[in-house]
Design a protein that fits this description.
EC number: 2.7.1.30
Structural class: alpha/beta
Enzyme class: transferase
Family: Belongs to the FGGY kinase family.
Helix content: 25-40%
Pathway: Polyol metabolism; glycerol degradation via glycerol kinase pathway; sn-glycerol 3-phosphate from glycerol: step 1/1
Number of strands: 21
Strand content: 15-25%
Number of helices: 17
Largest sheet: 7 strands, mixed
GO molecular function: ATP binding; glycerol kinase activity
Length: about 525
């Protein structure tokens, strides 16, 4: 409640790679109700990953309704007290839809999808700067990861997209844009205005089409790639009143006032200021270091991206990012494809049955490797297997693969940012803040601290992505101030700290073995089936 005794709430739509959640927070930023549902993953070919955009919309609708019902049943007057909605989403995932019908013209192409490898190779040959031709303007290398390449594939391969662009009926967007357009009116009607076609600076920064300095669509890039600016959404900040939710949704008339890509939302949820870093462990793993108002160009395989811009006139915070394609997805692979575990939560117990991997190293380069390697020709391997190897060793090697990949990224960050670019604790250690569903695994967190040789801090509420979107929305409508979000005093519950226990010499040997394993993954994409 606020000072007048009024119940005050903020909702957060968290649309991830495998599931959607809606969480309702009270004024103290504690969750009072939530609902989560998974949706279908489509794999049309090896390396291809798609989502049904209509199914994603329906998952949002369901989660909203169920969370509201739970809150009401528990005595919370959310109908009267809900002040704002924030949105956070899987980044880079790309779709094009019809302005007139509101229907997608193809399934959404997911961020980890690798079908654009051929387009990447073509552009690298055609452009004078090769793979890094656009880095100076957008901060990103040419890669299957980013939205522009997925959009080019749709423009070149889907007749419906070609026709809609020609007729002025096509709208492009990442998932945030798709959600906001539908939530604020969609196609419109007799009594409703059409939906708002917008995206925020963090999601726009992942398309390869936004100028990282001006925060606007880069016209030379659009001309080079042949992408018409008319199909692109308007770029806005992460925290401002965008529009109100229209009729036909479980909530209506409530302002959408916060929007961030999932990793940027986690930075806000973790209150990462300049010099501080967080790692989110989900389907992939994403490590971001806030570099303040300076956009640092990496020379060690990292990306220059937005951290957040909390208002139209607020300063822009930038970040160095290392993106890891496969983290928790490797655990899902053990469960769904190999049947080694029945649920993701079982992996900790199974891996704890052995003290080490028995010399087994697993590199989950299922669709190539992202930062800092950027090898789309890499494929997954499991090496060091002997007759002694059992499923516990395999399980532990999967957990270690997440932690080794995070260490690779952090090593690059240390080199790029230097001593002055990082904040250290009173013991002189650089602290990694962690969040995401996989961080409930205590063994994973201890392995991470051991391999880094520095502390890992897990907050009491590990779902900081949804919290960050709620904070952004609440900031825009006055529910919270930046002091509420970023001051240490604002954090009410004590985090858990994991300190390294591994001998330094052994750590070095294991890192060397990991790097040898990574090198074995290269140039395997053309193996005959």
């Amino acid at each position: 409640m606020d000072q007048k005794g009024e119940q005050v709430y903020v909702g957060s739509i968290d649309q991830g790679t495998t599931s959607t959640r809606f969480i309702i927070y009270d004024k103290s930023a504690k969750p009072i109700a939530s609902h989560q549902t998974e949706f279908t993953q489509f794999y049309p070919q090896a390396g291809w990953v798609e989502h049904n955009p209509i199914e994603i919309l329906e998952s949002v609708r369901l989660c909203m309704a169920k969370a509201l019902d739970k809150a009401t049943a528990d005595g919370y007057n959310v109908d009267e007290g809900l002040k704002a909605i924030g949105i956070t989403n899987q980044r880079e995932t790309t779709l094009v839809w019809s302005k007139s019908s509101g229907l997608p013209l193809h399934n959404a192409i997911v961020w980890m999808d690798a079908r654009t490898t051929g387009i990447c190779r073509r552009l690298e040959k055609e452009l004078s700067g090769g793979r890094t031709h656009l880095v100076e303007t957008c901060g990103l290398p040419i890669s299957t990861y980013f939205s522009a390449l997925k959009l080019l594939w749709l423009m070149e391969n889907v007749e419906g997209v070609k026709t809609a662009i020609k007729n002025g009926d096509a709208l492009f967007g990442t998932i945030d844009t798709w959600l906001i357009w539908n939530l604020t009116g969609g196609c419109g009607g007799e009594q409703t205005e059409p939906g708002l076609h917008v995206t925020d600076v963090s999601n726009a920064s992942r398309t390869m089409l936004m100028n990282i300095k001006s925060l606007s669509w880069d016209e030379p890039t659009l001309k080079t790639l042949g992408i018409p600016i008319e199909i692109l959404p308007k770029i806005i900040s992460n925290s401002e009143v965008i529009g109100k939710i229209g009729i036909g949704w479980p909530i209506t008339g409530i302002p959408i006032s916060g929007c961030l890509g999932d990793q940027h939302a986690a930075m806000v949820g973790q209150a990462c200021k300049k010099g501080e870093a967080k790692s989110t462990y989900g389907t992939g793993a994403f490590i971001l270091l806030n570099t303040g108002e300076e956009a640092i160009t990496s020379t060690h395989g990292l990306l220059t991206t937005l951290a957040y811009k909390l208002g139209p006139n607020a300063p822009t915070n930038y970040a160095l990012e290392g993106s890891i394609a496969i983290a928790g997805a490797a655990v899902q692979w053990l469960r769904d494809s190999l049947g080694i575990i029945q649920s993701a939560s079982e992996i900790e117990e199974l891996a704890n049955k052995v003290d080490n991997t028995g010399g087994v190293y697993f590199v989950p380069a299922f669709n190539g490797l992202f930062a800092p390697w950027w090898r789309d020709d890499a494929r997954g391997i499991c090496i060091g297997i002997t007759r002694f190897t059992n499923k516990s060793h395999i399980a532990r090697s999967v957990l270690e693969s997440m932690c080794f990949q995070v260490k690779d990224v952090l090593d690059s960050m240390h080199k790029d940012s230097g001593e002055k670019g990082e904040v250290k604790n009173e013991d002189g250690d650089f602290v990694l803040r962690v969040d995401g569903g996989a961080t409930v695994n205590n063994l994973l967190m201890q392995i991470q601290a051991d391999l880094l040789g520095s502390p890992v801090v897990r907050p009491a509420d590990i779902e900081t992505t949804a919290l960050g979107a709620a904070y952004a929305a609440g900031l825009a409508v006055g529910v919270w101030t930046e002091k509420d979000v970023f001051s240490d005093e604002a954090k009410q519950e004590k985090p858990t700290t994991f300190k390294p226990k591994l001998d330094e010499e052994l750590r070095k040997k294991r890192v060397e073995s990991w790097c040898k394993a990574v090198s074995r993954t290269f140039d395997l994409a053309d193996l005959s089936l």
